[in-house]
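Closing statement on the LXAUTJHC sub-project.
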Amino acid sequence: MATSQPNLYSFPDTETLAKQLRPYVLRCQNAALARHNTFRVAVSGGSLPVVLAKALLANSNGSPEDTPQFSKWHIFFADERAVPLDDKDSNYLLLKDELLSKIPAELGAPTIHPIDEKHVRDGDTQALADVYQEALMRSFAAKESVKLPVFDLILLGCGPDGHTCSLFPGHELLREKDAWVAAETESPKPPSKRITLTLPVVTSALNIAFVATGGGKKEILKAIFDNDEGRSLPSALVNHGAGDKVSWFTDRPAVEGIAFPRRGSL
Ligand SMILES: O=C1O[C@H](COP(=O)(O)O)[C@@H](O)[C@H](O)[C@H]1O
């Protein structure tokens, strides 16, 4: 359990939010490149890719610090639905449509780590999770002693029920300690079959950013930040496990009515 508090940032609208998300992501990128010449990031689906694309496809000020070096990015999925990669419910397809397909050639192409469709076709969600975990192991576990992958950045959404990745409230997966990637076969939000990074993997990341926008999120954000009853919600568990490694990027409607004792400044 972390002793520090997450940072909660709020901006007037998603345009301003995206303008601030950009330097945050690029700071994470630049620190990662200085450390190991690669940037390993996990990305969510839902409303996140649209905001992320706004942030990353904006014009650079020309400095190396303000330039995404996509050829050094390894993009993984924080969660993925067990559907073909060209299915409308695929988080990969969403990211491709919103961001990947729009990256100018001069910025280079990231290495993408999508799910293996073979196990979607045969309907084996556990195998899908296991194979994705093996892909993570190949990328992160140079030594067998590595217990958990350490992402440079994980970008998360928060559903109106407080779920994040495909970790849903009250689910036994929230107690998973060993697996890096888990199968969810009865998701309360369709589609029912998914895979997800587990909580220990999420909280082990060096940087974790939530993006939550719109009035539809205000009740759950109030529960997460201001109410004790919200403590066991998946998104709140990320806050408790990772403390000030977590930054929330919100717009005003999403945080209406929240007391702001822990608001940080970028
Ligand atoms: O089903 C999912 O939902 C969450 C939250 O989505 P949002 O639209 O409320 O931002 C998302 O983070 C996750 O990747 C996705 O599979």
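The beta strands are 7-11, 39-43, 73-77, 79-81, 111-112, 153-156, 181-184, 194-197, 208-212, 246-251. With this model delivered, the sub-project is considered complete and its resources will be redirected to Aim 3.
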